[in-house]
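input
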Amino acid sequence: MAEGSSGSEFTLDSIRKSLIRQEDTIVFCLMERARFPMNSALYNQSLDLVPGFSGPLVDFIVQETEAVQAKAGRYVNPEENPFFPDNLPPSSVPNYNYSQVLHPGGASININKAIWDIYLNQLLPLFVVAGDDGNYASTAASDLSCLQALSRRIHYGKFVAEIKFRDAPHNYEPPIRAKNADELMKLLTDERVEKMVKKRVEKKAIVFGQDVSGSNNADSKHYKVDPSVVARLYDEWVIPLTKQVEVEYLICRLN
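output
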């Protein structure tokens, strides 16, 4: 587990603290991406901007970046999941000895295809303006930062599921053995906590995203990213996808 935690320190409280810190990262990544307009050419399937590469420019940039990061050992970390896992080069550096917290059956779960589709086709149009400023490489780098932050947060569901299972295996084993995804979803859902999380991320977007001027009359109604979009991101995508990962992980937990 990252952030210096060992298996013995792996608790639901430590997971919650990590998820709260990841909220900050996600909000700041969205604000950075909002600096650029949509730059639609970056995502155009038919432009063929890179000779010899078939696909949109954003795919090329992300694949090349992930290849470099794979050589540097990024995907040895169980918290990290690549968006283009096929044919990634092996790590070229000595591997860090990460704690083996996750059950092998569910450790490889990767729903980044869904995250990619939601981010590009549903989320992005909600918080960036139309237009093209030609800064495609910088825009794609910001996109990847957002995608990786969201992926890390959502796939943290594997860790959440593991600790919840360890804390109460007697509650989870019957629906796991029955492959009852609906019952597992009920066990994992805490509407009070989810409501608190949505309120907290919206408040963070308000606090972090204000335009601060030298006067005492800062325009508090103008934000770098609309706080309601951040709340919607968690409500419609982050929380449901995290629970999807949790259920998929638990289904494999007794394998």
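quick obs: Residues 1-6 have pLDDT under 50 and may be disordered.
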